[in-house]
Amino acid sequence: NNFQKILHELCLGKKFIKKSLYEIEKIIFYRKNDWVKSSNHVFITGLPRSGTTALLNFIYLSDQFSSFTYEDMPFIMAPNIYSKIYKKKEIIRTERFHGDVILFDLNSPEAFDEVFFLTFNNEEIKKELVKFISLILKKNNKKRYLSKNNFNYKRISLLSTNFPNSTYLIPFRDPIKHSYSLLSQHLRFLKIQKENSFVLKYMNFLGHVEFGINHKSWNISKTNLKFSDINYWLDQWFIFYSDSFAKMHKVKN
């Protein structure tokens, strides 16, 4: 409804409000815990359509992890405050926009921590990252954090410096099948966003620019291919995984 749309625009689209909510959240709930840095958290990253969501859901079922879920929306920057005032509602499990038979409800984990990275600059991120994850852990009374963020491949060095004992997972698929899946989703979201402009806004709020009108390439390509060309997605696949595995090898050694 219109009220929810306005609330999303305020809490996710206005940097000043996001930062203000986060500062209030810290004042009320943050307490320094040295064990947060040394815990074995799990960070899932990789190209979309590689199985990251399925992997996220499977690991989350272990009940060992704290992760963002749909019930945290749109107060991603103040999860503890929102949990105190929000009256949980039951909703029917629904297939997500991707049309891939993956169902979700308010308890389902999802990739919302990109909101944090979009809110702060690099220096602020270095200063606040451990605090931010500490707040998510506190909300769910867990010792380990589980994240699925397709853009964390850019932050492997930052994450591994802050969380040296954590696990980093980068799933991948056959490049041809994967590239066709990426192209198919891009065309699907082009249609959805043209029919519903709020979907475009919502995806921008969350930093989901993987598909559709707001698509941004993961890597700069030497070719000049159109997004509607399967070879563009193949090229992106090759550059992405070559770069990601090189970064992982560097961190490991």
Strands of the widest sheet, in order across it, are: 2-5-1-6
The unreliable regions are: none
* Beta strand %: 5-15%
Radius of gyration: 18 Å
Largest sheet: 4 strands, parallel
Shape: globular
Q: What distance separates the N and C termini?
A: 51 Å
Roughly how much helix do the residues carry, as a percent range? 40-55%
Q: Can you walk through the features of this model?
A:
This protein has about 250 residues and is α/β, with parallel strands linked by helices. The chain has helices at about 1-15, 15-30, 35-40, 50-60, 80-85, 115-120, 120-140, 155-160, 175-195, 195-205, 230-250, and strands spanning about 40-45, 65, 95, 105, 145-150, 165-170. Helix content is about 50%, strand content about 5%. A four-stranded parallel β-sheet has the order 2-5-1-6. The protein has a two-stranded antiparallel ribbon with strand order 3-4. Helix 1 (about 1-15) crosses helix 2 and helix 1 runs parallel beside helix 10 (about 195-205). The termini are far apart.
Tags for this model:
alpha/beta, 6 strands, 253 residues, single chain, 11 helices, 52% helix, 4-stranded parallel sheet, two-stranded antiparallel sheet
Secondary structure: elements and pairs:
Layout: H1 2-13, H2 15-29, H3 35-38, E1 42-44, H4 52-60, E2 65-66, H5 79-85, E3 94-95, E4 103-104, H6 114-119, H7 122-140, E5 144-148, H8 156-162, E6 167-169, H9 175-195, H10 197-205, H11 230-252
Parallel strand pairs: 1-5, 1-6, 2-5
Antiparallel strand pairs: 3-4
Helix pairs in contact: 1-2, 1-10, 9-10, 9-11
Short description:
By secondary structure, the protein is an alpha/beta fold.
